[in-house]
Amino acid sequence: MKKSLKITIFLLVLSLTLSMVAVPSISNAEEKPELRGVWVASVVNIDYPSKATMDVESLKSEAIKILDNAKAMRMNAVFLQVRPASDALYKSKYFPWSKYLTGIQGLAPADGFDPLSFWVEEAHKRGMELHAWINPYRITKKTAAEPAQELATLYPFNPAVLHPEWVVKYMDDLYYDPGIPEVRQLVIDGVLEIVEGYNVDGIHFDDYFYPAKGFNDAASYKKYGSAYKSIDDWRRENVNILIKDLSKAINDTGKPVSFGVSPFGIWANSSSSPLGSDTKGNQSYFSQYADTRKWVKEGWLDYIAPQIYWNIGYSIADYSKIVGWWEDVVDGTKVDLYIGQAAYKAGNSNPMSPWYGVAEIEKQLKLNEESPEVKGSIFFSYKSFANNPALSAAVKAIHEQQDGVVAETPVTVARPWGNTRTSLAQYYIAGASDPAKPLYINGKLIEKRSSQGFFGVLVNLTNGANAFTFSQEGTFATRVIFKDSAAP
Known about the structure:
Number of strands: 18
Strand content: 15-25%
Distance between the termini: 102 Å
């Protein structure tokens, strides 16, 4: 056999052999799991700690309770606010210990306790991510019971006290001036000490950049902004520089730490920009000078988590429209889209409110699930779940359904079988539940049930849609009863 024929036969056999080998494609690669996060706010003791204390065991037990409850709801990420206001919930060489932690700014916890280190360790034990949440520019946060904040009230070695020329007072609070290069470097240095010193999974900014248009930064604009056409363009570029430089600094560490921002939900209205959304609300591009759309398009972020804190159908800012706008923004980029959910609005006591009960959150999560671009949710904040067992049960049920977990005895509503209309002022709703577990209607405990778990409740109706959500540890059912005006 000639040599050339042998080569031809060899190549043919090789080709047939390779065609029979299953080569994995990118489309079959395992996708990153949906992010299910919850914000844990430390500012003014919203979530953690519930009150300032030197009791280390109390600080530990509160952290464990939050993590255990989040895990029970099948959450997989916690966003812990570790720098609420030019202070720290960790051992920092730049910022003093937070007054929200121990009661006095600069006072360290007892026994060398480091809350961030503890949270990271405990979160990872539960298979959860821990993201360090930072407010880059806020120095103070006044409460109604406090006087206007001044530098004299801060720890003597707070960076704001050491560099009063970096500070601008706006309303009753103090802020670092984003236009000063040394301020931006302070923010970056403060982030890097977390990334390099703790095994965190992410660095997270929320929506606090410039506080408002009336920010008095004329001096720094005069010094640094001469090349810009307007102070607005200069302010936006200051924040752009911070985000871009911080993104590079985090990447340069080589650590697998994600960087993301949770901006105000509206970038710009279509009436202000042809690229804006079909909304009529406040605009982060013009108010906070946060060009979040640019950050996504430039790839400076790993994820964007807009705070879409409005209901579906809201005329000024429709949840579904804004989600659609952000879907278009991230499309074609490598930036993940998470949605900031208004858990704090759920359970409104007004039956006319779209946030009555937990039906609105349920609808929003179902809408998110239908989107190929939405990769998860972050809920504000943990306290909303702690104060609303029905919300916890509803979110847990949705997560369990997504994970294919089937409840042994799901709560069911037999009357009415589906959503209905009536002209009556009251309606009798009946169904079945697990008798061994508490049952809630719109967050309120149903106290009377049969020994088999059957229930019946007489509910009052107002004109229009009335939503009733029955929830029970992992399962829920919702009925909407639309009341027409009574017939003459």
